[in-house]
Write a structure and sequence with these properties.
- The structure holds 2 protein chains of 2 kinds.
- Chain A is an alpha+beta fold.
- Chain A has helices at 6-18, 23-32, 37-55, 64-74, 85-91, 196-203, and strands at residues 125-133, 136-144, 149-154, 164-172, 178-183, 189-193, 205-214, 227-231.
- In chain A, 29% of the residues lie in helices and 25% in strands.
- Chain B has helices at residues 2-13, 17-39, 42-59, 70-88, 99-102, 119-129, 133-145, 149-155, 160-177.
- Chain B is globular.
- Chain B starts with a helix and ends in a 5-residue tail after the last helix.
- The chains are: A alpha+beta, B mainly alpha.
- The interface between A and B is large, with 61 and 78 residues.
């Protein structure tokens, strides 16, 4: 079968998402997906199209055993159950200034990337983005509540080649990357002061990126070295 | 809300168990309804839901907000888990009138719009209303109950060829109605 015909691709993607593509045809289609970005885009479009349907269902309370089963399968310790636990969860919301200063990366009891405990003093910080490289999430970018500085911390804390520096960039929807400054990294952490120029650059960012530059930063005003980390800012 | 879920997924990718639990608390009731709708058996739906969240934990770093909403990403994971189960048990459809099923309600054939607040969902529901009855019923049964072409033919007492055409044309009209390019 020729899979490169647009109409056929559309039909297969639609029936794959609907679930009516079955048996060998489904298996063959799934093998093609990793190699064909066009096909993946069609599948993603159909998933997005049909998703509201799935979300239209009336929520049903889930038996508590399901969550304990998930924790057991993952080897996570069951959460302690303080009387205030439920209220704590309700209060905890992204952007909650009261709690935004509390960093909730808990070391887990099993091998997995464990974040160094990060202590952040007041004022509260708002999470802005998680920048990843090909190995996964690495830099967490936070902004203080008065928009005066960015606070970055690295989970990987990877060593930097001698004579090199990391530079943070705001990449707007249109136009060239704009520098937000060289990161003065120490122990996997860095802070950058934001003046009004930087604040405006930050507001235009559709992506934040960190590139490897000569120490002192890019000599040209544009990234000259490889882009090591990227991530989309979370709009608050 | 959508931003919050994406954020919780990013946190989960970092190994943050509390964010993962929060994600679970926020999203599992709706996904449980979806799994229940597809699998019809409580124990099966609960198992599939567990598998799905184990999968979410392990693959959270592959979530890409550019490719779709967090809710879509979660819906897809759960549907895949359920469809896999359904396909492994071809006889499952014989149990359509399970008692477990009775306490759950699918969106009926009537106007879905009333149920939906989300603009995308309203658009989809509106487009569904424009399909022929058979097309709508076929798509709905396939989507919510995981019926295959031949099961649809059996359930609707129609020739296989007709059922395949209803599904195909229904999907084409849906795409046209939603004005999407691909």
């Amino acid at each position: 079968m020729k899979y490169d015909q647009p109409e056929l691709q559309m039909k297969l993607a639609a029936e794959y998402v609907l679930g009516t593509l079955q048996g060998k045809a489904r298996t063959r289609f799934e093998k093609l997906l990793p190699q064909d970005s066009g096909l993946r885009a069609r599948v993603a479009a159909w998933e997005q199209r049909m998703s509201p349907w799935a979300s239209a269902l009336k929520p049903v309370p889930v038996p508590a055993t399901v969550w304990s089963g998930v924790q057991r399968r993952l080897g996570h310790a069951p959460a302690e159950k303080p009387a205030s636990g439920f209220i704590w969860w309700r209060a905890w919301a992204f952007g909650s200034t009261a709690l935004a200063g509390i960093i909730i990366l808990q070391p887990a009891p099993q091998p997995q990337p464990v974040a160094p405990p990060v202590v952040v003093a007041a004022p509260a910080l708002t999470d802005l983005a998680v920048l990843t490289d090909k190995e996964g999430p690495d830099w967490i970018v936070r902004e203080d509540s008065s928009h005066q500085k960015l606070v970055l911390s690295s989970l990987g804390n990877k060593p930097l080649p001698a004579g090199k520096a990391l530079e943070l960039w705001s990449i707007p929807a249109k136009g060239a990357p704009m520098s937000l400054g060289v990161l003065p990294v120490q122990d996997g952490k860095a802070e950058i002061a934001l003046d009004s120029t930087h604040q405006s650059r930050l507001q235009q960012a559709t992506v934040l990126a960190i590139s490897l530059e000569p120490s002192g930063g890019s000599p040209t005003g544009l990234p000259t070295g490889p882009v090591l980390y990227t991530g989309k800012p979370v709009s608050v | 809300m959508a931003e919050d879920l994406a954020f919780l997924i990013y946190r989960t990718a970092l190994g943050d168990q509390r964010a993962f639990e929060k994600l679970y608390r926020e999203t599992s009731p709706r996904l449980y309804a979806l799994a229940m709708m597809l699998l019809r058996k409580r124990d099966q739906a609960e198992d599939a839901l567990q598998e799905a969240y184990v999968n979410v934990w392990h693959s959270a770093s592959s979530y890409n907000a550019d490719k779709g909403t967090a809710q879509t990403w979660l819906n897809v994971i759960v549907r895949h888990r359920c469809i896999d189960r359904i396909r492994r048990e071809p006889q499952r459809f014989a149990t359509l009138d399970d008692t477990d099923w009775e306490s759950f309600e699918a969106p009926g054939p009537g106007p879905l719009q009333e149920l939906l607040t989300d603009a995308d969902a309203q658009l989809l529901a509106g487009c569904m209303e424009h399909l022929d009855g058979k097309q709508r019923e076929s798509l709905s049964l396939a989507f919510f109950h995981g019926l295959t072409h031949s099961q649809l033919a059996e359930h609707l007492s129609a020739p296989l060829g007709s059922v395949k055409a209803w599904v195909r044309r229904g999907l084409e009209r849906l795409r046209g109605c939603l004005h999407h390019e691909i």
